[in-house]
Predict the 3D structure of the following.
Amino acid sequence: MTARHAHRASRLHRPTRALALAPGLRDELERRGLLREWEPGPADAPTAGQTLGGTGPYAGLGLTGRLVVALPETLWAPLVRGVYWTNQPHLQALQAWTDRWRPGPAPGRSAAPPEALAERERSAAHITTTGAILRTALTRTVDGR
């Protein structure tokens, strides 16, 4: 153990963001069934903030806050790969919906009836983003849960 790690372990020094977040993230990944080995996603898989149906600064909630944290491979891989693979069926459903209903006669308006719009909302509600998992882990860390 390095002197810096010993100093942090003594609680006389604040931990790094990664060390502070790691236990909460590990718990959240475990709770969601994501803390396991996953196959890598394809090279052209969307990166954070690009998931169809996701929320972020350019869609949905309009969240603009950023948390930058370097995660160890043991947490990063299950987070990113687990989110990718568990979202696949829902993303396929959203793509099929988009292929069927396409944009409507006016920009931003869909030709889909209300029942189809509700179906899209149900599919989108199943999308999990890495940001949502990190925010949950961060909230638990800050709240001490």
Summary: The CA atoms of residues 24 and 140 lie 6 Å apart. Helices lie at 3-9, 17-31, 73-101, 114-125, 130-143. The first helix runs from residue 3 to 9. The two ends are 27 Å apart (CA to CA).
